[in-house]
């Protein structure tokens, strides 16, 4: 018989193994404790902040700068004549969009001093969020070198 000792002559069960019963009760207790919190307050129990439809209209504006190896400078796809014109365009964009982010896309053959010079011009125009665009799909070293 399960859970007891038997000497074959129909004697009484001397002991019951209660370990499986305790395991089942503990599992049920844990399940009830977890689900009870969700039943009482379903929205606050998970700690999820739901998005508001009114704030979904914000769009991040990017001030894109392209530096070509021939020395050309393009802002959002349009050629810029000189450094002063770049500063003026950056200041105008910053007035319209205070959280402006500048992304510099420089050809691999552009000298480092030219990229630093453009960064300095952006800094003079008070643009502080500057990032660099990279193309990791055709890296000569491969993904292991990064």
Describe the structure.
The chain has a domain at 54-134: Nucleotidyltransferase, domain 5. Helices cover 36% and strands 14% of the residues. The two termini are 66 Å apart. A five-stranded mixed β-sheet has the order 3-2-1-4-5, with helices on one face. It has helices at 19-40, 42-45, 83-96, 112-124, and strands spanning 62-67, 73-75, 78-79, 101-106, 129-132. The protein is α/β, with parallel strands linked by helices.
Task: State the helicity in percent bands.
Answer: 25-40%
Q: What fraction strand?
A: 5-15%
Structure summary, number of beta strands: 5
- The tally of helices reads 4
Give the overall form: elongated
CATH architecture of one domain: 2-Layer Sandwich
Q: Which CATH top level class of one domain fits?
A: Alpha Beta
Mean pLDDT: 77
Order of neighbouring strands in the sheet with most strands: 3-2-1-4-5
Q: How widely separated are the two ends?
A: 66 Å
Write down the CATH topology of one domain: Nucleotidyltransferase, domain 5
In the predicted model, the low-confidence regions spanning at least 5 consecutive residues are 142-146
Q: Given the helix and strand composition, which structural class is it?
A: alpha/beta
Order of helices and strands: HHEEEHEHE
Radius of gyration over alpha carbons?
A: 34 Å
Brief rundown of the structure:
With 146 residues, the chain is an alpha/beta fold. Helix content is 36%, strand content 14%. The protein has a five-stranded mixed β-sheet, covered by helices on one side.
């Amino acid at each position: 018989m399960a859970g007891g000792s038997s000497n074959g002559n129909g004697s009484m069960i001397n002991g019951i193994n209660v370990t499986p019963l305790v395991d089942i009760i503990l599992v049920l207790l844990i399940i009830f404790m977890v689900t009870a919190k969700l039943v009482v307050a379903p929205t606050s129990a998970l700690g999820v902040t739901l998005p508001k439809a009114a704030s979904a209209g914000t769009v991040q504006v990017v001030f894109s700068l392209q530096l070509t190896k021939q020395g050309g400078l393009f802002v959002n796809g349009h050629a810029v004549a000189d450094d002063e014109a770049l500063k003026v365009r950056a200041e105008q964009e910053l007035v319209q969009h205070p959280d402006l982010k500048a992304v510099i896309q420089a050809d691999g053959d552009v000298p480092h001093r030219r990229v630093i010079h453009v960064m300095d011009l952006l800094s003079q125009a008070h643009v502080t969020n500057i990032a660099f665009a990279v193309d990791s799909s055709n890296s000569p070293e491969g993904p292991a070198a990064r």
